[in-house]
Amino acid sequence: MKKSNYIVITGAAGFIGSCLVQHLSKIGFNNLILVDDFTKKKTNLFTKKYFKLIDREVFFKKNLPIYKNISNFIHLGAKTDTQKLDYNIFKHYNLEFSKKAWEFCSERKIPFIYASSAATYGSINNSFDDDHDLIPELKPLNPYAISKNEFDIWVLLQKDSPPEWIGLKFFNVYGPNECHKNQMASMVYHAFNQISSTGQVRLFRSYRRGFNDGDQKRDFIYVKDIIHILFWLTTKGIKINGIYNLGTGRARTFNELVNIIFRNLQQKTNIRYINITKELETRYQYFTEAKMDKFRKLGYKKGFTSLEDGINDYLNYHLKLASSTSS
Full-prediction pTM beyond 0.85? Predict the structure, then answer.
């Protein structure tokens, strides 16, 4: 990946996208073409360097000369609200827009990286195996996850493809620049704010045998690990074609996560377990854990940030600073 060539990043003003922009611009990759809806999240791009902003609704309607010099296309943009039930919203942004991005890269021979999701796996009755043959059999639990899985299925059926491509099933990502996500922000973000305002954290009760209240598990991955891997993939220099899990490979409970935050804030643990809504109960994942064997075979040797270290970094160098600045 040459610094003189252009890199397209969709969802560039969002959570993961803005963190990637920050990392790339910091190390001298300033020829960044950023694609997003910039009306609400542009603050995430303050102090960051880039070449051009293009609204996501007009990107594919243009045919700019710079499009001939794109070295990488990193597609992170998506509608991510798992509680919205109108599939048409997700179909437009997560499926149809993604198809256009794929075709754009196929025609121009541009390496393509895109974000899928662990939400595609649905309920606990699976092994979180990223084998391609299993993807059409998955049963996602909400329209967001369905749209992500539909694109994965579509990709695997295509005869024309970018010269290199990889889909990454992100597990539960947390870290700086996520505050605009509101309800969809990570539990680390919400727990910090709840403790700061009430001294207490609310967690869902369990309604499934084998899981105590708060012992529902997620594979939490720090956004800085995601960014390191995205950069590694764009500079790896070997041909990659496939869909891969991207988590730490180790599930942790919400109780563990909250206890880590209370300890970090030097406060006594205070958890209140609350009822889950009937609508959410049928679409709730009790366990996620990335099976990482296939990804490791790509040659990635670096370990992942532990939940303890990730929370420490996020709280002490981001959330606490932001809280003290706004107060």
Answer: yes
